[in-house]
Amino acid sequence: MKKYYSIKCIFVYEPEDSEYLYRYEERITLWHTKDMDEAIKLAEEEATQYAKKSNSEYIKYCVSHKLDEKYGEGKSVYSTKRNSDLEPEQYLDNFYDTGDECIISDDPIGELENCLDYEQTLLKALEMNKRKIKKLKTEI
């Protein structure tokens, strides 16, 4: 009996429109296969093709998630757990809310503007950190 699996693969780009050396994309695809090994195999084959089309490199990292038998609205399509000593806010800042995210949307111009907006985001974060440090100094 076939089951559904979501597979997350990671890609790297060398952006021409950024001061950064690399831009990473985490991409999740859905597979209906007999087992997880087959889903991973198919996902990696597709990842290789996607990398060619998107002018990126598939960095040979994928993670799978088996979907519930009865999937639908509100059901998990992907989940991963990571051990960390970071507090929740630090964890998000470190892995997800870095200020360097490029939001993928149906609007390619908006997407480009979002990716180019990283400098302003970093300046805002720097200013926030300066205020936090100043506040801590006054409390000490």
TrEMBL record:
<protein>
    <submittedName>
        <fullName>Uncharacterized protein</fullName>
    </submittedName>
</protein>
